[in-house]
Amino acid sequence: MKDRESSEMYLETIYILSQKSDTVRRIDVSKYMGFAKPSVTRGISLLTERGMVTVDDNGSIILTKQGKTEAQRIYERHTVLTKMFMNLGVDEKTASDDACRIEHYISDTTFNAIKKHMEEHK
Question: Structure pTM?
């Protein structure tokens, strides 16, 4: 489970960074996550092997269609859970930190129920 959580964190980070810039490099991921460059290089290599990202000749990390779909799924979980916690009165930082931990383990059934509830009670 830890490997999946790590992969998901990298995918979500790459997705977030790609929304802000046309190019995402290992150094950007390293700075954003606070991880050492060798750790990021290893993580990106694993994502490349799984077909989630490609790295072009300039070192830009590009989400594949499969990688982007997975990254969007993870990001949606993060944002919905963060909003739910904030609606309960949790401060934004704590809500986001807790959502980050939970997003990797919550079942699709439970997440979809939370999402539906949040949409019905806007």
Answer: 0.90
